[in-house]
Each structure stands twice: as C-alpha cells, then as structure tokens.
Amino acid sequence: MNAEVRAIKTSAEQALTSAYEAARASLPGKGAVAALREEAFKRFDAKGLPHRRVEEWKYTDLRALMRDALPLAVPPDAAAKAKAKDAGKIFAALNCRRLLFVDGAFVPEASDLTPEPGLTIGSMADALAKNDALVAAHVGKVFETGDSAVALNTSLMSDGAVIHVAAGTVLERPIHLVFASSETPSAAFIRSLIVVEKDAQAIIAESHESNVSQINCALEMVIGDGAQVDYYKATQTRGLHVASLLLTVGAKAAFNTFALNSDASLVRNQSFVRFAGEGSNGGLRGVNLLRGKEHVDTTMLIEHAAGHCASREQFKSVLDGQSHNVFQGKIVVKPHAQKTDTKMMTRALLLSDEAEADNKPELEIFADDVVCGHGATAGALDPNLKFYLMSRGIDDKQAEALLIQAFIGETVEEISHEGFREAIMRAALEWLETRG
Amino acid sequence: MPAVQETVDRVRQIDVDQYKYGFVTDVESEKAPIGLSEDTVRYISAKKNEPAWMLEWRLEAFKRWLTMREPTWARVDYPKIDYQNAYYYSAPKKKPELSSLDEVDPQILETYKKLGIPLREQEMLAGVVRKDADGNVLAERRVAVDAVFDSVSVATTFKEELKRAGVIFMPMSEAIQEHPELVRKYLGSVVPTTDNFFATLNSAVFSDGSFVYVPPGVRCPMELSTYFRINEANTGQFERTLIIADKGAYVSYLEGCTAPMRDENQLHAAVVELVTHDDAEIKYSTVQNWYPGDADGKGGIFNFVTKRGDCRGKNSKISWTQVETGSAITWKYPSCILRGDGSRGEFYSIAISNGMQQVDSGTKMIHLGKNTTSRIISKGISAGKSNNTYRGLVTAHRKATGARNFTNCDSLLIGDQCGAHTVPYIEAKNSSAVFEHEASTSKISEDMLFYCRQRGMSAEEATALVVNGFVKDVLQQLPMEFAVEAQKLISISLEGSVG
Q: What is the pLDDT of residue B96?
C-alpha cells in the first residue's frame, strides 16, 4: 500500500549497484560532477528500480520487466561504427546535420561538425570531464524530479550531445542525433543537454535503433525567452528503452515535440515540462504503433508555473497482438498561473482482443481562471466505416489500413515541418504494410 | 423572476447560521470503554446479542485489521488518527422493549424533528392526503425512514406496510437476529472483510445500519431512507448497510447524514453493500452533510466510506447518486462490479468543497460481463481553500466484450486558493470495449455572471444560479424530496465563497 516499503534488491538492482561502484572512478567528471552522481545514486539506491507501487510507474513495472542489468557499454569498435553509418534511416531524406552515437558514445568522425555561426556542438563526456560551464549550469538542474530512472541516468551518465544555440541564431538545418547500437548487448546511459538561447530557432531530431540493449537516455533542454524549438523522436528499439525529457520553457517561447514509437519492444518515454515564463505555447504529440508483445508507456508531467501559457497534448496509439500501451498525462496548474489553457487528448485503437490500453489523463489545478480539459477514448475500428469502404470494393486489410492511417493522420498532420511530417507518415505506413 | 426573493431569503438565512445541524442533543448514553481491542469487538457483539458466527466474523476482521496500514494514496492530508482514543460504540440509554414510536426518547425525536426528518407515521400520513381541484385524493410518495443515532437504530417507520409487500427493511442488528440466513449469505460478499483498512475496521466494530431485502418481482412501494446522526463526542460511527434486490426487484434508497459542530475530528467509516440479481435495480442516493469543520479547518468529520454494488444478475442495474457537501475529509468511491451480462452501473455525483475541506471521491466501474454499460457524471465545485479530487477507474476485462462507458467529470473553481484535480484510470483490455472520457475545468464565466447581474441579481444569486445549472444533470437523478434539499445544501456550502 505504501511506496516507501523497500523490497529486497533484485538481481538487476544489485548488478546496477556493482556496475556503479566499479565504474565510479572511470566515469567522466570529477568534483561537482562526481558529487552529483553520488547524490543521484543514493536516491536511486534508496528507491530501487521503479515498480508498480510507484504511482507514475503503475503500468510499467520496471523491476519485473528488467530481469537483469546488462554490462555497461564499452567504446564501439571500427566494425560497430561502420555498421552504424546507415542508422537513422527514418530522417535520412531530410537535409539534417547528422551526429552519430554508437552504444551511447559520440562518434565525431562520422558526424557532421561543419561550423555554423551561433552553434556549438560537443560531447557530454568531454564536457563532464572538463567541467564545462554550460554543463555545470544545467545538468541535473533543468527539472528536478525524484524519478529513479532519471536518478540512475545521472549516476551513470557517460556520453551524449551538448548543443548550444546562441541568442538570435536561426539554425540552417535540423540537427539529427542518430543513436545506434553495436551487436554486443550492453547498457548505455546517455545524457544530452540542449540550450536554445533567447529568440533562437532550432529543429532537433532524435532516432533510436538498437538490438537487445538496455538504453536509459535523458535529454535536458532549456528553451529561452522567445525561442522556437521543434523536437522529434523516433524510437525503433528491440531492447529496453527508457527516455526522459526534462524541459524548461521561458517566456513567449514556442515548442513542439513529436514522438513516434513503432516496432519498439519496451519503451518508456517520460517528459517533464515546465512552463516557467508567461505567454508560451507548447505542443506534445505522438503516435505509437504496437504489435506482438510490445509495451509502450508515454508518461508526462506538464507543469504550468507561469500564467498565460497554452499547451496541447495529443497522442494516438494503435494496438495489435498482445501489446500494451500506457498513457499517463498529468497537467499541473500552479497557483497564480492564471489564464492557462490546456487540452489533452489520448486515443487508443484496439485491433486485437488481447491488447490492452491504459489511459490516465490527470489534472491538478490550483488556479481558478483557467481552461483545462482532457479526453480519452479506447475502442475498436468502427465496423460501419469499414463496411462503407469494403462496399466500394476495397478489401478488408486495405480498408483497415486506410482507417488506421486516418486515425493517426489527425495527429501527424499537426507537424508543421513538411519533411518531418512526411518522414513520420512514411514510417507509419511501412508499419501498416508489414502488419500481417 | 419568482425565484429571486426565495434565493435572497435563503442566502440571508444562511448568513447567520452556516451549518444549521451543528447542535448537540443531550441524551444519556452508554458507551463502550474507550479504545480498540478484541474486548471492544466482543463488547459490541455482546451488546447486540449477536450469534457466535457474527462474533467470529468480527474477530477475524479485527485480526486482519491489525496487520493493515492506513492508505496514503489519496490526495488528502489529515492528522494521524489515534484509534485508541475514540469510542467505538455509543447508544442512547433507552427503556427496554419499545412497543411504539412514542416510547423513543423524546429528545431524539426532537433531534430528528430539528433535522426535518419526520419519524412519526401519523405526521407522514397526515401529510400525504392531498386533494386535487375536483376533490379527488392524490397519491403522494411516502418515505419509510430508519433513523440511526450514534451506534444504534432508534426508529424505523412503515415497517408493517413494507412487510405486507414482502420487503424487509430493518436495522442491521435486528436483521442479524431475525434473518441470519440472508445476512450470512450476503454480508461481506461485496466488500470482503479483507477489502481495505477502513472497511476491515468497519467489519470488526460496525454497530448498526440498514438491512433491506426486496424479494423477487417486488417493486418496493415507497422510498426507503436512513438518516445517520453522530451525536456523542469523540465517537466514531461505523454503520453497515446491506441492500439486496432479488430477481426483478426494484428499490430506491436514500441516505442522509449530519453531525454536531465539534472542535475534534470524528471518524465515520461506513460500508455499504448492494447486490442486484437478474433484472433487479437499486437506486442509491446520498446527501452527505456531516459537519465540515470551521473556517480554519478545525474539527469536522473524517468520512472514509467504502460503498460497492455488485450487479450479479443479468440486466441488473445499480445507480449511485451523491451530493457531497459536508465532512472535513471525504474518501469515498461508490463502485459497481458489472458481473452480470448486460448489467448497467451509473454514478452521478456533486462534490462541493469549501473552507478547508478536502474531497477525494469518485467511482469504479469494473466491467466483467458482456455488453455491460456504465455512465459517470461527476461535478466538482471547489471554493475557499479546499481541494476537490475526482478519482475514478473504468476497466473492461478480457471477456467483457461490448463494454461501454461514458465519463464526464467537470470541475468548477470559485476563488484562487482552491484546487480541483482529476485522476481517471481507463483500462481497456479488449478491443470491443468502447470508453469515452472527457473532463474540463473552468471558473464561472464572467459573462454569465455579468448577464445575471445586469438583470438585477446579486453576486450570490447569480453564482447560485450558474452553479445550479452546472450540477443540473446530477440533481435530476435525485428523488424529488432530496433534490430540493440538495439544492439548498449547495447554496449553503457555497456561502461566503463569492466576492
């Protein structure tokens, strides 16, 4: 009944503890960084892996799902790097600046580091080792949360991207962070930091592909006053993928995120977003396509700490086989965050009787002059619509595909960038085609 | 607009006396020794002259309770309850063997009179003969009342008439003596003794409550009603209600509650179990107006209640309607287990919190049978410094094909120091389940208020009008007698929240 009840440590927890103890000395960063790790590890150690008694992890019991912890990733060899050249296919057609990471480690030689005014790109490992000022100012501070998956990431963070976009800069090209994995199953703890200063504009994309690896990645993002950021994340991983987005938005800023999960075995995408300045707009959207025994959990905490902000959350999930989709969205409106306007919508389409869709849209409101709403639906395809199409000579499978496309299309259409909209729709259509 | 004067009067009346049920009745009472132990359980059981199986059942629950921990997941915050510093049984001292209502302690009758509850049948009967324009006698609905005063039921009206229809309506303590086979069969079958901390505590120490059995095919000829009254200081009230509607039966049951104003917190941990067989229907309405504490949050009732209905038969129906205005803390989730194929569950709720009140309430609709349907309409209104949470679960299991649910939970905030929260859990485990959920939170629109004010209404009147419009969907579900009372309660509860 109570979350504080601490069970005996599982073998995965024990393995993580010994991995941390063994790696402590060799992990990048000394002094303040080491103290940050130590403190985070203590938090993780006290709570252990999140389990179903932890409300935010009610439907994704990581303690049960993570039987054991894989060894920490070693720097990739030449073969692994060569193999990763083709990774990130989903956004390949777009003219992006590619940054490659294999097993969590930055591969500068396969990354596009052409200089651009106002843009600084570096690796997190270097920044931590040098105790870089930007990293010192933000890492672990963007959105403080008691979540133990984030704490575990902080204690074992090894590498990732550090991107700084100077005030007023409008990036020429989108930045694509390509995360690939080698053949050897391993555990990677990726930490990235993106700071977009005042009035700057950036488009960031992230693609994850992996074999049976265990990935725990966290991205801290700071969006300055008047800045505009679009962030896309495509996850097609065969192992365990736990991703945390920690985001703070300044005043009069705008951001949009879109997450696509297709053919991903076990994903937890959690977002922690704080509207810290007035007059900002944000949109969080996503499409999940599940089959087999896949499990995708989208959890978000949207905190409106300042007034006059608007946020839109819209998520669609298509479930086939014995898959399990989880959506937990919590909107918190702090006292005095008047004139907040939020709308959250989550819809699940169940194609199979063995699939399960759990929705938990939450509102927590402490200000009176707000307009907040949420909606949730779960159901099967409308047989009348299918009949309509079939009576016009479209076969069963095609009719279903059309209806599914229309269902997810509503959310995908919201993407303003044409290239990304098409890339994501194409990936979704590929999934539909391979649906048996 | 004829309503205006009435509204003004109502508001004025409330001005001087916000919680008008806060008086204490001076009745000599006997109590169990303070504290909770196996002896307390034995004491209560002995007082009620219960058979051995009942005592055993209680003791089992008590043993279980000792191993349980108080739940902390609800969004409520209250000082730790000292379970050893309360009385678990209190009964007005009475003359032995009551033969008629006249022998009930006049003080108690007076109390119920002050609460506006007619216990005397003759009064009721006098009230029902009304004639229309042509002089024909109009039939009017009558209500049978069971009045519970602290731990015992003091009077039940219309017993004879109900008996003729075959309906059993009596205090639980009498039912244990007179219909042990029914009680044994159904008691704890919906809310098991192991269910949760407060339900288990109730199982161990429950004192009284109502027992209703409606035999097959019988439509209960009148509304049944229970009024609960906590009078004694430092006493917990633990009543247990069990309602069974056999095949094709129908019953409508109303429940009202009040308590005196005291500085201390008092615990009310009730359990209500409903069972419907094939084609039966139970309509359960509550107007909960326990003492909510003063403006600083001092005193008030802790209302930790477990209510659950089991739609056991095919095409059976259970409907919960609640108007929650009282209690310092409310922790209450009237639920429906939709086991029978084609069964239906409904939940209509208005929860109003003001001052320092905390409400965490909602429902559970558990779809197990095929083609089961449920509907949830919840309206939360927060004012003052209160917090109001809707927490609900809708779930359809693998075999519950064709399950349908519609949920609508709206919150209204009055003032900028209160909170309104919504925590719905929606779990679909088969593809033919269709679930729809919508929620909104807003404040009373300035435009609406302006419109009303422009037509000469005061701020209070305008607010009351808008709020009544907001909760109309739920009020319509209440039996007429209660709807009027509920409407009054709403304006009382919102007193002082405007401006």
A: 45
Domain extent for A98:
11-277
Q: pLDDT under 70 in chain B at which residues?
A: 1-28, 92-144, 150-157, 231, 233-234, 259-260, 262, 481, 491-499
Q: Which of A338, A360, A366, A407 to mutate to test the interface with B (most CBs of B within 10 A)?
A: A366
In a domain, B499, yes or no: no
pLDDT of residue A219 exceeding 90, the answer is yes
Closest-CA residue of B relative to A369 is: B443
**pTM reported for the whole predicted model:** 0.86
Q: Is residue B467 part of a domain?
A: yes
Give domain status of residue A377, yes or no: no
Q: Which residues of A touch B439 (CB under 8 A)?
A: 361, 363, 373-375
- Domain assignment present for A324: no
Q: Total structural domains in chain A?
A: 2
Same domain membership, residue A388 and residue A273: no
In a domain, B287, yes or no: yes
Domain boundary at A236, A261, A277, which?
A: A277
Q: Which residues of A touch B370 (CB under 8 A)?
A: none
The reply to whether A402 falls in a domain is yes
- Write down which residue in A221, A242, A277 finishes a domain: A277
User: pLDDT tens digits, residue range B231-262?
Assistant: 676 677 888 999 999 999 999 998 887 766 76
Residue A258 lies in a domain: yes
Q: What is the pLDDT of residues A309-355, one digit of tens each?
A: 999 999 999 999 999 999 999 999 999 899 999 999 999 999 999 99
Interval A195-212 mean pLDDT: 94
A-chain residues near B418 (CB < 8 A)? 366, 368
SS (H, E, C) chain B: CCHHHHHHHHHHHHHHCCCCCCCCCCCCEEECCCCCCHHHHHHHHHHCCCCHHHHHHHHHHHHHHHCCCCCCCCCCCCCCCCCCCCECCEEECCCCCCCCHHHCCHHHHHHHHHCCCCCCHHHHHHHHCEECCCCCEECCCCEEEEEEECCEEEEECCHHHHHHHCCEEEEHHHHHHHCHHHHHHHCCCCCCCCCCHHHHHHHHHCCECEEEEECCCCECCCEEEEEEECCCCCECECEEEEEEECCCCEEEEEEEEECCCCCCEEEECCEEEEEECCCCEEEEEEEECCCCCCCCCCCEEEEEEEEEEEECCCCCEEEEEEEECCCCEEEECCEEEECCCCCEEEEEEEEEECCCCEEEECCEEEECCCCCEEEEEEEEEEECCCEEEEEEEEEECCCCCCCEEEEEEEEEEECCCCEEEEEEEEEECCCCCEEEEEEEEEECCHHHHHHHHHCCCCHHHHHHHHHHHHHHHHHCCCCHHHHHHHHHHHHHHCCCCCC
CB contact under 8 A, A366 and B418: yes
- Which residue reads 């199986």 in tokens? B53
Domain assignment present for B402: yes
Range of the domain at B450: 3-493
Q: Is A369 on the interface with B (CB under 8 A)?
A: yes
Q: How many domains does chain B have?
A: 1
A370 Cβ contact partners less than 8 Å away, ≥ 6 residues apart: A333, A337, A338, A339, A340, A341, A342, B413, B441, B442, B443
